[in-house]
Amino acid sequence: xxxxxxxxxxxxxxxxxxxxxxxxxxxxxxxxxxxxxxxxxxxxxxxxxxxxxxxxxxxxxxxxxxxxxxxxxxxxxxxxxxxxxxxxxxxxxxxxxxxxxxxxxxxxxxxxxxxxxxxxxxxxxxxxxxxxxxxxxxxxxxxxxxxxxxxxxxxxxxxxxxxxxxxxxxxxxxxxxxxxxxxxxxxxxxxxxxxxxxxxxxxxxxxxxxxxxxxxxxxxxxxxxxxxxxxxx
Length: 233
Fold this sequence. Notes:
It contains 9 helices and no strands. The protein is an all-alpha fold.
């Protein structure tokens, strides 16, 4: 279901937004916003955490509205540390929570398969894990440190810019989609049904979250860093 936030603004109660779309709980966790904010407005909570209301609502809209297109005109370089921290927290959530759970469920699934199907699933999952590890490592070890250096005024490699990230930003959802299709369409009916549904639910949740994660990087992070690079020339 698509939840629209056109009527929400800094005066809206944060609890109302979470009740309308529980997926926003993940955003609060990644921004280290603690529960127990009562009837506080979005603006009040953001002020408490020194976070811009504009950025917070932008991230929420990416998650809640499939038709939403972010515009960064009102964002400033001061939003970048919060945005980077949010993306880093997302990486930890995927690597420490989502993927271990998916891996465990896939391991349970393949135990009931013949050797051929077992190997196919293992190969696709291993390829996906390798792809994700490389993707996140590049962002954590190259892109985010570059942004932090840029913000702190430390001299950076003149040959590197956020354009390098944009041109090399791989799509990590494709292999996951392949695994989903195999589990959904091609495994034998004798495959353990409960575990099969658990694997599919895991994949669908991860796929949806990573699509939005990528949207935030492409539509918010990259243009905002490019804007800062131009202003710093």
